[in-house]
Design brief:
The chain is of the alpha/beta class and 230 residues long. It contains nine helices and seven strands. Strand 1, helix 3 and strand 2 form a beta-alpha-beta unit.
Length: 230
């Protein structure tokens, strides 16, 4: 089965294939993913980000400029960029070898308006060039929601959204996030499962809207949001 058959534009599908091939080629050296089956990589790392994009656009979520926090292998940010060339996006990754891969992938794909930043999110969020500069923050498998809210919301302008795919613990994570939301100026806008065009467990997407400015003291220094969630 062609895992990306739902992408009808041939050049776009070929660009996504190129990205998939780069993942397969560099996955071991750059520790990009534990997935090995190309079809599974298509589904999880290439296809699901596109379903997420449709999910967000159907709900009127502004997608540019965006930041992909803990981008790792470039997902969900790079597949979304491939299908939305006008999108301005920052790929934020703290691990140097993964950031090097992202630079290689951006160059190989020939996409523009993509910035790769090798830094810790807790530090970059205090940089005036990035703080409150984005309409959308994406994060896949970065941290439990209470910590992620503290890390991500400082990047967003008021009215921007954090969108994060979660597993079966999504609603428990939301319930544990009440204090983080209150402290960082967010409110949960949606907790919904994505509809997938293949068999499998669909991620549950949590969308958090930023409704007030985040106090300057957040996020706390690297590692603290995960160790001591708000």
């Amino acid at each position: 089965m062609d895992q990306l058959s739902f992408v009808t534009d041939t050049p776009t599908r070929e660009a996504l294939r190129t990205y998939r091939d780069l993942l397969v080629e560099h996955r071991a050296a750059a520790s990009l993913t534990s997935l090995q089956d190309p079809d599974e990589i298509d589904r999880r790392l290439v296809g699901e980000p596109l379903i997420l994009l449709d999910f967000l656009e159907a709900r009127g979520v502004a997608t540019s400029p965006a930041i992909d926090i803990g981008s790792g292998a470039g997902t969900p940010g790079l597949p979304i960029k491939i299908v939305r060339p006008a999108l301005r996006i920052t790929l934020l990754e703290a691990t140097a070898k993964k950031a090097v891969f992202l630079e290689k992938a951006v160059s190989a794909l020939g996409v523009e308006d993509v910035e790769v930043v090798a830094a810790r999110a807790e530090e970059l969020a205090h940089d005036p060039g990035h703080r409150e500069s984005y309409q959308l923050a994406l994060a896949r498998a970065v941290a439990p929601l209470p910590a992620l809210i503290e890390i991500a919301l400082p990047f967003l302008a008021v009215g921007g959204r954090l969108a994060t795919p979660k597993g079966s613990s999504a609603r428990d994570e939301v319930a544990a996030s009440a204090n983080a939301l209150a402290m960082c100026g967010g409110e949960v806008e949606a907790v919904e499962s994505m509809a997938l065009p293949w068999e499998g467990v669909a991620p549950t997407v949590v969308i958090v809207r930023k409704v007030a400015e985040t106090p300057d003291r957040y996020p706390r220094r690297p590692g603290i949001p995960a160790k001591r969630p708000l």
